[in-house]
Amino acid sequence: MDQPPLPARRRGLLLPALALLAVAGSVFALTSLRADDQRTTSPETVAQTATLPASVVDAQKAAVAQYSPAAESAAIAVDIKNYAFTPASITVSPGDTVTWTNEDTAPHTVTVTSGPVKFASPTLQQGQTFSYTFTQAGTYSYYCAVHPDMKATVTVQGATPPPPTSTTTAPPPTTTSPTMTMPTSTPGSGCAVKEALAPFIAHLKAAHLEESLGQQVTDILNLDQYIKTHTVLIENMLTPILNGDADQAVKDVLAPFLAHLKAAHLDESLGQQVADILDVNQYVKTHTVLVENMLEPVFNQLTC
107: Cβ–Cβ under 8 A, 6 or more apart, which residues? Predict the structure, then answer.
């Protein structure tokens, strides 16, 4: 049988060889793509081979920080307006920051009387703010040391993160006084008297020593608020004694006075109190009987 010329034979072998080379090339390409894909998706490989601009790295860090647990804390605002804290009762989570803003022309404070941590703001003039980050769960009762009838609470629910921080901001050129820490006491340690004096000292500093003469005159002219302020102050001073470890005879003496203070002064309008004073006969009789009721427990305990 005659064989084809050599060039034709070479062409016949060349085509299958080219086909085999094409298949091998495809397999190699797929294998390389898979290897490259694995290298691309590997964090270690990215860290070793990829060099990102600093601005991109900073943006990535900021995005991570934005969704970190520390950034999930909330900012809550409380207005001090019309001689009241609004809202008067709030519930927050550990790590949340509460900011109080004084919108009254009269000065105010944020003074914690009970809670896991006791703290007090400086005296806040109009437009000034005080911020506190709550980290310990519990209920915090606070009031204004200048106007003790202004009361409110903050309830912190949840787990407890790191220690608290507080900041005070003030619009220039007004300045604020240093933070005052309220005295603390241990139950049963004979500190009822200290607790009774604490509201008085706080009020004396905030409403008298640190107030201008003009502001004190303004306070006095607002007679209804002035009377209420000082009657509530007396109530706040007597409550620790009645609830504390004072002698029972002292409690018995003070109880009628506190009851009268609440009913005849705190719960009465200014107009009614003026009407009571104008009825002189009844007014004198009311307070002489009050003194009698206060002294009676003492006389009943005396033996001769």
Answer: 123, 124, 125, 126, 146, 206, 207, 210, 211, 215
- Two tokens at 186? 């241990």
φ and ψ at residue 154, rounded to 5 degrees? -125, 125
Q: What is the 3-state secondary structure (H, E, C) of 74-138?
A: CEEEEEECCCCEECCEEEECCCCEEEEEECCCCCECCEEEECCCCCECCCECCCCEEEEECCCCE
Kind plus residue range of the DSSP H or E element containing 47: helix 43-49
Question: What is the predicted pLDDT for the residue at 21?
Answer: 57
Determine if the pTM surpasses 0.70.
Answer: no
CA 38/CA 27 separation, integer angstroms:
17
Biggest CA-to-CA distance, the chain = 156
User: Which two tokens mark 299?
Assistant: 């006389």
Q: Can you tell me whether residue 53 is helix, strand or coil?
A: coil
Q: Mean pLDDT for the chain?
A: 73
Confidence of residue 162 (pLDDT cuts 50, 70, 90): low
